[in-house]
Amino acid sequence: MQCRFLGVLALTGLATADVVPTAPNIDVPFSITQYWGAYSPYYNAGNYTAPPEGCTVTQVNLLERHGARYPTSGAGPLIQASAEKLKGAQSFNGSQYGFLSNWTYQLGTDVLIPFGAAQSFDAGQVHYTRYASLVNSTTLPFVRASSSERVVETALNWSAGFAFASDKALPSPPPLSVTLDESRNDTLDNHMCPTAPTSQNQTAAWTNVFAPPIADRINNAAHGAHLNSTDIVNLLQLCPFETVAFEKPSNFCSIFTQDDFKGLEYYIDLDDFYSTGYGNPLGPVQGVGWVNELIARLTVQPVQDETQTNSTLDGSPKTFPLNRTFYADFTHDKTMIAIFSALGLFPQTENLSTSHPDAERTWFASRLVPFSAPMIVEKMDCDGTPSIRILVNDLVQPLTFCGARDGMCTVDNFVESQAYARTNGNGAWARCLG
Ligand SMILES: *[C@@H]1O[C@H](CO)[C@@H](O)[C@H](O)[C@H]1NC(C)=O
Ligand SMILES: *[C@@H]1O[C@H](CO)[C@@H](O)[C@H](O)[C@H]1NC(C)=O
Ligand SMILES: *[C@@H]1O[C@H](CO)[C@@H](O)[C@H](O)[C@H]1NC(C)=O
Ligand SMILES: *[C@@H]1O[C@H](CO)[C@@H](O)[C@H](O)[C@H]1NC(C)=O
Ligand SMILES: *[C@@H]1O[C@H](CO)[C@@H](O)[C@H](O)[C@H]1NC(C)=O
Ligand SMILES: *[C@@H]1O[C@H](CO)[C@@H](O)[C@H](O)[C@H]1NC(C)=O
Ligand SMILES: *[C@@H]1O[C@H](CO)[C@@H](O)[C@H](O)[C@H]1NC(C)=O
Ligand SMILES: *[C@@H]1O[C@H](CO)[C@@H](O)[C@H](O)[C@H]1NC(C)=O
Ligand SMILES: *[C@@H]1O[C@H](CO)[C@@H](O)[C@H](O)[C@H]1NC(C)=O
Ligand SMILES: *[C@@H]1O[C@H](CO)[C@@H](O)[C@H](O)[C@H]1NC(C)=O
Ligand SMILES: *[C@@H]1O[C@H](CO)[C@@H](O)[C@H](O)[C@H]1NC(C)=O
After folding, report:
1. For 219-231, how does the pLDDT look when each residue is reduced to its tens digit (9 = 90+)?
2. Where is the secretion signal located (predicted)?
3. CATH entry 3.40.50.1240 includes domain 29-69+111-189+276-432
């Protein structure tokens, strides 16, 4: 059965009633978008709940992925080539291919798109509304971004939304105080471990499982297109990329079934898991630098780290203050995956199979790192005891590594639990340097 657009999804996923979202709704069924993995527009994996009785939030640590973007400069030409192969078929059997005669590739590369900017602005509004009691015109969020244009623009749009929601209580947006250079030491990017293996073998193995029957089906209908498995992965991705770029459902979505998208979903889950997640021996260590910065902020103690931090920046109160109530950092998906894995979030009992997706896994990229994904570490005062909880896409995480069942953990126990970060990844960082 081919996909049908069954209903309207509010792609913004905003849960806060008194915020007027600016990102448009796109008429795509949720049943497809949740299978877009890291290309899913943000949706909340849970509804935000107030802290438990007796606890007051005293500090917020936000780590947010950039909003929706065009395909990267590496992926874009490959996606275009696969689409041109399909368009070049001698004849088509099926009305869902009719659009191709008039289709051309019109996506840009790398940068944030208007939908991504709007979602970042909306996220700023939600976060101001939720945490207004922690900020005023002299205690603004301290904002950092990795230096990619799309990450910087996400930070600026978030800040604009944050100030907008304050209804002039904040006369101007929080400034972007630190931009971390992606060619230097940078805890908001994952470029510093060149010896880490890639996920290529695992994604290729899964592609060989799920894509050949799809290629056969489409080649039967598109005579002479000669699509292979790689083309199928590329064409599946064109559905989310065109949808978010043009803010209407891409025609490419209609040539695939829901099961086809489940294949794409697992492809992206594997890519994340084996690139910087638990499946990569040098994945989690690439999140250690940020975790050590988090520990510094939670304990109000200087940063202790020998991985990705820039000690010059982190040693100065101008570029790494410890007296703020709100820290906002903007980053990339693979970096967030490394940080989740360094922290111990989304633990897996075994490494993900490259042939049989486990439906019970907790590792779904669309719930970990959709476009504009936020992780928030709330520090709280709970009847005098400093405590934390961690929300990923608004879902409170269980923090089993901290002995917590309800997601609450004392700061002391949390720091204790982070031995992996505090030892520079049990020494794994040395192997990143060759
Ligand atoms: C949030 O709450 C609404 C209303 O109760 C419910 O429909 C929705 O499923 C909840 N969302 C999540 C992700 O739990
Ligand atoms: C077109 O596809 C349908 C099944 O979807 C098939 O029954 C029919 O024979 C095909 N026609 C041609 C000309 O290939
Ligand atoms: C082809 O695309 C152009 C530009 O997007 C549009 O103006 C035109 O109406 C389309 N023609 C058909 C037959 O869909
Ligand atoms: C801003 O908040 C800080 C800390 O809560 C407080 O000390 C300060 O007086 C506030 N400033 C204004 C202008 O309200
Ligand atoms: C934080 O400390 C610096 C001095 O290091 C001071 O200039 C600044 O006003 C303080 N900020 C807040 C929000 O207390
Ligand atoms: C928001 O992002 C867009 C790019 O999509 C950029 O042009 C714009 O300048 C950003 N807004 C702010 C306030 O920086
Ligand atoms: C650390 O940050 C400073 C200030 O931005 C910069 O000049 C320097 O190149 C950085 N060093 C490294 C190793 O990243
Ligand atoms: C990928 O597979 C090839 C061929 O089996 C092997 O030589 C290579 O070491 C593997 N790479 C990784 C990163 O596992
Ligand atoms: C699929 O075909 C393209 C050329 O159209 C080629 O570059 C690619 O390597 C092929 N992939 C596989 C798995 O054969
Ligand atoms: C999963 O893969 C990682 C990286 O290769 C390895 O360190 C770890 O031991 C594996 N875990 C299991 C349960 O096999
Ligand atoms: C940058 O990172 C490298 C690798 O961990 C480290 O050796 C170096 O001291 C760091 N530089 C600064 C300025 O922190």
Report:
1. 999 999 999 999 9
2. 1-17
3. yes
